Amino acid sequence: MNRKKVMNLIFAIMAMVMLTACKNQNQKQSSSKTVTTTRRSKSNSSKKKSSNRSKKVVQSSSSVKKNSSETTTMNFEQIKQGDYSGLQGTWTELAHKTGKTFVKGGTDTLSVFNESMVNGSTKVQKQTLTDTDGEHALVFKTKDNILTAGLSDENVAVNWTVKFYPKGTTSQYQTNDNVGKNSQNLIVIWTSNNSYTEVFAQTSTKVPVVKAKTVKTGLNLSQISKNNFSSLVGTWKNNHDGKTIVVTNKIMNAPADSNVAWSKGAVLSGAEHNGYPDVITAGKITNGYIQGGIGTFHAKVLGSSFDPLTIIPKNVKLSNSDDSDYTRDRLILGGGQGGTGTQAYYKQ
Q1: Which of 34, 62, 274, 329 is deepest in the core (most CB within 10 A)?
Q2: Domain end call among 174, 192, 214
């Protein structure tokens, strides 16, 4: 009996030990699951934070790129390739000067097209500048966020530079009455002729609609010196006395019995001398203008049949005493001997 009790006691103790072991095993498994779940939760949280940081970096980088793009108001690479489409809009003359003194405002114009810019008789076509002396290749250089286009061959009678100033790059030219750097894009055109400078500000980026027939071209001395008088055609008026010179598109050859040096002339509308009309003749380009003549090829006219006539483009002065409006193309009767301001005829 005692033995049976002992055996029962042993079995009871073994059962309790086994139950305790199973309970501990379940607790370990439960604890392991909890730790694993916690680790996974921390891992997911870490991944989310990393993802958020990554998104913020991408957004920040994107924002920087966007801001950088917005502050680039002139595409220098396009301009260097002769593409001026990004500069189209309205350009207004801000100031001009001869020498050191700037005069605010002005009436000159700058027209910008896809592949060209036109300022009176001067034109930039792709990578070439054309003035009254002909065509000149351009070279482009960038310094301090400013692009400068200059003549590749500076050994010329009249030199030029065209500078492009994006917004906020210079305090030399003001576009308003406030101090500080320019708040508008600027194009500054300089010529060595009388050291004349014009400053144009982009007052609108809206492309103006311009009818072809309203576009006026200036004097082309290179053509005129070769007896192509097309840029002279039109009405020229003297603002002092109201008289006019009307140049037609007709050209007259000098007759065989003519004793003048010129072989051709642009026919003027109006007076005739025994069937011979008055004409304008041309010569070589000297100091940025042409000393031509106005008169008739009629050989029997008493005295000299021609008077001097200076054909002079805008921004060129005949002399330091030239008191004509040198911001405009003009014909100066008498070659300036009787005064320039009173003898100047301006294209209408």
Answers
A1: 329
A2: 214
